[in-house]
Amino acid sequence: MNARELLAPDAGAPLGRSRARVLELLREAAAPLGVQEVAERCGLHPNTARFHLDALVAAGLAIRGPQPNPGVRRLGRPAIGYRAAGGDARGAPAGERRYRLLAEMLASMIAGLLPDSAATAEQAGREWGGYLAEQPPPYQPPTADRALADLTALLDDMGFDPELAAAPGTPPRILLRECPFREVAGRHQAVVCSLHLGVIRGALARMRAPLTAGRLEPFTGPGLCLVHLTHLGEDGAGERDGEGVASAAAAGR
Fold first, then answer.
1. What are phi and psi of 209, to 5 degrees?
2. Facing residues of 116 across strands?
3. What pLDDT, on the 0 to 100 scale, is given for residue 200?
4. Is residue 185's pLDDT more than 60?
5. Which candidate in 129, 168, 187, 236 could, as Cys together with 203 as Cys, close a disulfide (CB 3.0–4.6 Å)?
6. Residue 244 and residue 170 in one domain
7. Of residues 160, 166, 128, the one with CA closest to residue 147
């Protein structure tokens, strides 16, 4: 590990299509926007919109604060709004960010101190995948095709640049052509890849999809990971925390 690289300020990373669209909306707005309004205008689930808005705030590209609404009296806490951070914006976060260093610290702690780090990371991923995915209405579970489309859109929002590979008669697969945590995954593969697998499993469970992720193959090619999906009810379609990625991760060390 190169300490100088870890201590260097984080470079501006590509935002991804959905996050860039949210930022553009904030820049065009004449007043701060709430989460629901951003979600509706961008065609996103409110949890996904909040995820992007908070990420923009953390990156110093947006500012979160009370949303003024002249003429309307509210009881309790004021509504929260978001606006784009300008060059002279008051309240813009000062200082340079070093999130890779934070990621390395947390990943190394999980890998070094927890007895089953892969299972713990996957459980965390499940929680976040369920939070970011949109739940369908009662008694209206999605078709496999709809679930795959929604999952691919979520992974794209997270920066994985996914590509669905589905041929008739074969289980569907998703190619992840980018890894938003590639540098950290290179050193803590079992933790980071299990986290990613958990996100996928948690999102599919939240959708009540007829699919699950059987396993994730890390780094099958340069910058490429492969997610193998199975239809529920098929042999081997079960899943347990910490399984599906650890053996491949160990082989990649």
1. -75, 150
2. none
3. 97
4. yes
5. 129
6. yes
7. 166
208, 141 Cβ separation under 8 angstroms = yes
Count other Cβ atoms within 10 Å, centred on residue 232: 12
Which residue did the predictor score with more confidence, 114 or 92? 114
Number of domains within the chain:
2
Residue among 63, 64, 51 at smallest CA distance from 87: 63
Nearest to 68 by CA among 87, 54, 81: 81
Beta strands 62-66; 162-165: pairing state:
unpaired
CA 94 to chain CA centroid, nearest Å: 25
Antiparallel, parallel or unpaired: β 162-165 and 224-231: unpaired
Domain that holds residue 134: 99-251
Structure tokens at 227: 């997610």
Q: Are residues 199 and 241 in the same domain?
A: yes
Residue 164 in 3-state DSSP?
Answer: strand
Distance CA 177, CA 174 (A): 9
Pair (156, 192) in one structural domain: yes
User: Once rounded to an integer, what is the mean pLDDT over residues 157-180?
Assistant: 89
Whole-model pTM: value is 0.69
